[in-house]
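Worked Example 4.2. Read the sequence first, then its structure tokens.
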Amino acid sequence: MLLARALRAAAALRPPLRHPPRRLLSSSSPRALLPPPAAAPALARSLWQLGGGGWRTALLRPRRGSAGGVSCGCGGLHTEGDKAFAQFLTDEIKEEKKIQKHKSLPKVSGGWELEVHGTEAKLVRKIAGERITVTFNINNSIPPSVDEETQEDQKPDEQEPDLTSTPNFVVEVIKDDTKQTLVLDCHYPEDEVGHEGEEESDIFTIREVSFQPTGESDWKDTNYTLNTDSLDWALYDHLMDFLADRGVDNTFADELIELSTALEHQEYIKFLEDLKSFVKCQ
């Protein structure tokens, strides 16, 4: 009896239980407490539209006036350094055009026809059943600058020497109805050294001579190549006379330098213009 009475007394003192939260989800609960079912998809769609198909792109795009620069319609970054770089290129292009000697490429005397493909140029001449081609590329054709001692000796009011392009060039002699082409690899030596007793030295030299299959663009390394470093002088002189008889002599070499220098300067200005457009995103 005492135990039952104690239990009833404890039950009378216990506070009434609150309604569980799930009763709010019943049909009689206020609908305002429930979130609209279409809210989440609408939010996701608005973020997608904000980014033009990818909202992460819009969030990661630099804002105007930020320290990292601003972007334009091209999607590229534009900084104050880019602006100064573009202005420098504008001034540089103007100066280079002022000192440009040839607005169009000069011609080479002797009936040579010129073909230009970017930085590569080819001169073609046909005489008496033979086709002579001279090919050169103006890339890396500017000799290194003068040494520091020469620069120190130069006076402040003296103008810097003009840059001259002296490219290596390849002469190909093709005879009609033959399957072989005589190939002579020529270059301009840094120090022009003539033969003893000669009144005039050659401004270019033959470095290598070989035969290659006619009509094939890829030359075979298995074909014998004659290096002229250890060649008999008499044979070398005959090779030089062979070229001179076909119009490849000192006069031609001088005009080739003028043509190559004009082409190199033209391509340099074009490169500066392309670089300016790239920096400005035009």
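Now turn to a second chain, presented in exactly the same format:
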Amino acid sequence: MLTLDGLEMIAVLVVMGLFIKVLEQFGMFEPVGGEDSVEDDFELSTVCHRPESMDKLQEQTKFTKKELQVLYRGFKNECPSGVVNEENFKTIYSQFFPQGDSSMYAHFLFEAFDTNKNGSVSFEDFVFGLSIILRGTINDRLNWAFNLYDLNKDGCITKEEMLDIMKSIYDMMGKYTYPSMQDDAPREHVESFFQKMDRNKDGVVTIEEFIESCKKDENIMQSMQLFDNVI
């Protein structure tokens, strides 16, 4: 079970760990046979949204041709239309937390992937995000996580924003903690988060403070390294 002391770190790491579950759900760990072209998959698919060419995706991400094949086949299998909307995204997450409510956290995560703010996540959106999370530098990954928690995208994380995040994590995983959390636990963890992250005590956490604090946390750094060889 998850201990209470680990929730501050969970606020940074849970996005990383849940991607493993999502990738498994999409069947993206299955081996790819032969040397089939990703373009062939693109051409044969009857989709509402047709992805960019493999060459362009290779240039824009840190994935190889083979890895793009695996990712696309898994994505196409779960999303035949070529895009996933927020409700489908929430459905995927709900399967992993049947005893909790993952809808709000899934909403925040969907917003981070929906970079065009058009209400849907395309294969390109998905791959660009995964490329950062799985293959990006430490700074890239922390920037992505910061953007996830900076809900109004104003360049800083407020206590209100972090409380929304913590409540969503509590709703999603709270029943699996030991000892069980009290109703005021999310707010207590927000205060702990700000004590660690808000270096100049001005009531907000900037990207610089966030990255500096995370880099000094040995547990966060070690956990991030676990994603270096996911696919």
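Notes for the reader: DSSP finds twelve helices and six strands in the chain. The first strand starts at residue 2 and ends at 3.
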